[in-house]
Amino acid sequence: MKEGLALLNAGVPVDFMAIRIANREMQVMLPSISFYDRPETYKIKLGHAKADLLHIHNEPDWLVHVAKEARPDLPLVYDCHDLNCMRLGQAQLDEVLAMKAADAYIFPSEPYMEGAIKYHNLSPDKPKAVIYSMCLDKMIVEGNEMPRVGGIAYEGGMNVLSSDASEEQRQVYGYRDYRPIAEALTGMGIPFIVYSSNNRFMYEYMMAGAMYISTLQHNLLLRELTRHDWGLVGAARPHPQADTAMPNKLFEYMTAGIPPIVLNSAEAGKFVEHHGIGVVVDRVEDIPKVYKEHEKYRKRVQEVRHDFTMESQVPKIKAIYDTLLEGKGKANG
Predict the structure, then answer these.
(1) Spacing of C-alpha 320 from chain mean position
(2) What is the pLDDT of residues 72-114, one digit of tens each?
(3) Cβ-contact 68, 98 below 8 angstroms
């Protein structure tokens, strides 16, 4: 959604297709959108699409190779945020087929790109770019911040694994169990506020000591985040996905004007330290040592956040489009 809106604002015509809109308040901003409910309707609608290029996001990965089957005449960009070759060290068939079908690739971080190139032996002749999941400039919260209540916020996916969870479920989702962090921070007297993407595990997180905020519209989420001293990026334990990703939440905290505190997220930690916008800790127990520094980093985040928006990423996206469409004339969308 953020890439598409930024491209529209830069004069690139975009028609959207989705199974649903996660942030319904954004739907009214889209000049053109259609919906599918299964692979058959997806293929039919793509078959009738008037476009010069397809830009497909995962997950699921079947969207990519099925799109190529439906429209072999169109160049295809595979925007892959969540790859099992990175999460599990092994790709499923849909991911393998998607990598072969794509004509160009967009990755969320440098390690993701390097790992995918190596695992899938990607051709050096196919264009590639790293596009960070930054917010639009107009999403930046300025002038209507909420009263401060302090604490460390976490927004995004979270999990509670049952005792009978499979080994694959533990590998893929286990790092999203943030209850150990909630319990540790509560024990140290530091409020931990979780903004959930669903309400499935409300009871378990409240029992662990977290203050649990129900699902919010994206614009309200960003405004509510302004209440807090820090935003947590990372995981309770090391995991390849957490270590290599540059997650949405990192840039959403910046958009809200709060500094990130990074735990078990190596690539995000490098970014945060390089730009001086937050801190990296090795253990939850180290958080009290740095907690009071939030005002210094908050000021820094608010000074530089207009430089880290999706608009800054558009030239790299357009460069891939231009390479794929070279000699084909002006794009329809």
Answers:
(1) 20
(2) 999 999 999 889 999 889 999 999 999 999 999 999 999 999 9
(3) no
Is the separation of the CB atoms in 100 and 121 below 8 Å?
no
Q: Is 214 helix (H, G, I), strand (E, B) or coil?
A: coil
CB 201 within 8 A of CB 158: yes
pLDDT tens by residue, 267-276: 999 999 999 9
How far CA 38 is from CA of 60, 66, 77, 90, 324, in Å, comes to: 12, 11, 21, 26, 28
Q: Tell me which residue of 160, 177, 294, 312 sits closest to 234, measured CA to CA.
A: 177
In the CATH hierarchy, which top-level class contains the domain 140-307?
alpha beta
Residue with tokens 């595990």, as numbered in its chain: 201
> CB burial class (10 A; 0-12, 13-18, 19+) of residue 285?
exposed
Torsion of CA 5, 10, 13, 14, to 10 degrees: -20
Cα–chain center distance at 58: 11
Neighbour count for residue 297 (Cβ, 10 Å): 21
Q: How far apart are CA 93 and CA 235, in angstroms?
A: 28
**Residues with Cβ < 8 Å from 156, sequence gap 6 or more?**
195, 197, 247, 248, 249
Paired sense of beta strands 33-35 and 54-57, if any: unpaired
pTM: 0.94
Is residue 60 reached through a cis peptide bond, with omega within 30 degrees of 0 on the bond before it?
A: yes
Q: How many CB atoms lie within 10 A of CB 216?
A: 17
Pick from 94, 96, 61: which is nearest to 79 by CA? 61
What are the domain boundaries of the chain?
A: 2-134+310-325, 140-307
Helix, strand, or coil (residue 291)? helix
User: What is the CATH code for 2-134+310-325?
Assistant: 3.40.50.2000
Same fold, 2-134+310-325 and 140-307: yes
